[in-house]
Amino acid sequence: MNTTSALNTVGARPLQFPIPGNVYAETVVSVKHFTDRLFSFRITRPQSLRFRSGEFVMIGLPNAEKPVFRAYSIASPAWDDELEFFSIKVPDGPLTSELQKIEIGDTVIMRQKSTGTLVVDALTPAKRLFMISTGTGIAPFASLLRDPDTYEKFEQVVLTHTCRDNAELTYGQELIAELENDPLIGELTGGRVTLYNSTTRETSERMGRITALIGSGKFFTDLGIDKLNPKTDRIMICGSMHMLRDVKELAESLGFEEGSLHHPASFVVERAFVG
Q1: What does the longest C-alpha to C-alpha distance in the chain come to?
Q2: Chain centre distance of CA 176
Q3: CA dihedral 28, 34, 38, 42 (to 10 degrees)
Q4: Which of 49, 79, 111 is at the close of a domain?
Q5: Among 18, 65, 103, 259, which is disulfide-ready with 265 (CB 3.0 to 4.6 Å)?
Q6: How many CA atoms lie within 13 A of 201 on its CB side?
Q7: What is the pLDDT of residues 220-243, one digit of tens each?
Q8: What is the CA radius of gyration of the chain?
């Protein structure tokens, strides 16, 4: 299933509840469903919003007197005129049960502050940057991969994306395929970005959790690269709780140090999740 809507095909549905104070109220401009579990959407960008590529915001729907907000990484880069998000669909999720039904013209509300640790300013410069992601954890990397600052700081970028099924990898595959045609950063990305996919349930060319592939050495053999080295490499991690914990422990065991905006170092991890 892969459907895209166009901006002028659907009118806005009337709001049933007033917009809360101190939030942005933005309009859905496109929706794309990848599978029965994953979809992306784009909304208008508030003129006053400033954020770093890789950060997240709290978004919700104006469908209750006290709307539910959840953390969503902004998948579009800081220079984009619109805001893109990549989301799971949870049938009984407090937010996603309704968010998955949005149509063009609908309203999405968003708190006014962005934050997050997955920003290049939290890392010191190095030769290679490894972006380790599972599921919708690829979203902040979609932002960073389209930001020129990433390529000023790192010579090579390796994006890993692990999902249960092959169809769930489509978002990342399309992202990488379109990079070189991007009018702003296309010239910067040629030959510098590698996508490393794996699946954990459906049979594919590469099977297994990313931690197992790294631990067995297959990851390095497949890519034809040396093992992770804190002197030459940097790591960003976003995805499931188990993966975050395991890759963080692996990084620390190899001598990597967790960084922040105040103290840039050799790896960063995001702990905000969608539900």
Answers
A1: 57
A2: 13
A3: -20
A4: 111
A5: 259
A6: 8
A7: 999 999 899 999 999 999 999 999
A8: 18
Query: CA 2 to CA 68: how far, in whole Å?
Result: 28
What distance in Å separates the CA atoms of residue 251 and residue 219, rounded to the nearest whole number? 15
Nearest to 134 by CA among 59, 200, 36: 200
Q: Is residue 275 part of a domain?
A: no
Q: What is the pLDDT along the chain (275 residues), one digit of tens a residue?
A: 444 443 333 445 667 777 888 999 999 999 999 999 999 999 999 999 999 999 999 999 998 889 999 999 999 999 999 999 999 999 999 999 999 999 999 999 999 999 999 999 999 999 999 999 999 999 999 999 999 999 999 999 999 999 999 999 999 999 999 998 888 899 999 899 999 999 999 999 999 999 999 999 999 999 999 899 999 999 999 999 999 999 999 999 999 999 999 999 999 998 665 33
Q: Among candidates 4, 196, 192, 188, which has minimal Cα distance to 84?
A: 4
Asked if 11 and 91 sit in the same domain, the reply is yes
Burial 73-96 (b: 16+ CB within 10 A, else e): bbbbbbebeebbbbbbbeeebebb
Q: How far apart are CA 109 and CA 81, in angstroms?
A: 17
Rounded CA separation 124/264 (Å):
6
Q: Domain count of the chain?
A: 2
DSSP 8-class letter at 256: -
| Domain edge (last residue) among 111, 134, 153 | 111
180 and 199: one domain?
A: yes
What's 243's domain CATH number?
Answer: 3.40.50.80
Q: Are residues 137 and 100 in the same domain?
A: no
Q: Is the Cα torsion angle 46, 151, 143, 124 positive or negative in sign?
A: negative
Whole domain around residue 152: which residue ranges?
A: 120-269
